Amino acid sequence: MSDTPFPVTAEDATGVLVEHRELMFGVVHDILGSVADTEDVLQQTWLSWTARSGGAPLDGVHNPRACPVRIAVNCALTRRAAISRRRETCVGPWHP
To answer: Contact 37/83 with Cβ under 8 angstroms?
Structure first.
C-alpha cells in the first residue's frame, strides 16, 4: 500500500458516502437503535464530510472508506450521549 493519500474531490466525497452508506447505516443503527436518529447522523456525516472538501482534494485522507465511517461513529456517539442526558433530566418536581 502506498503512503500517498488518495485525492478526493467534492464529487468523489459524495460518491464515497453513497458507496458505503449501508455500512455506515448498520454501524450507526447498532449504536443508536433508531432509524430516525440514524438518518439524522448520516445526514450530519454527509454535511461534515463534504464541508471538509471545499471543492479541492482532501489532503491526508489515506482511506476514503474509513474516514466517513469514523465521522459517522463519532456523530453517533455524541448523539447517544445527548439522548442519555435528555432521559436523565427530571421534568418537574420529584416525589418519592
So the answer is: yes
pTM over 0.85, yes/no: no
Contacts of 45 (CB under 8 A, 6+ apart): 17, 24, 68, 71, 72, 75
Residue 78 in grid coordinates: 455524541
pLDDT tens for each residue of the chain, 96 residues long: 445 455 556 677 788 889 999 999 999 999 999 999 999 999 999 888 877 756 554 666 788 788 889 999 999 999 999 988 776 666 677 676
Amino acid at 70: R
Query: 3-class SS at 7?
Result: coil
- Encoded amino acid at 62, one letter: H
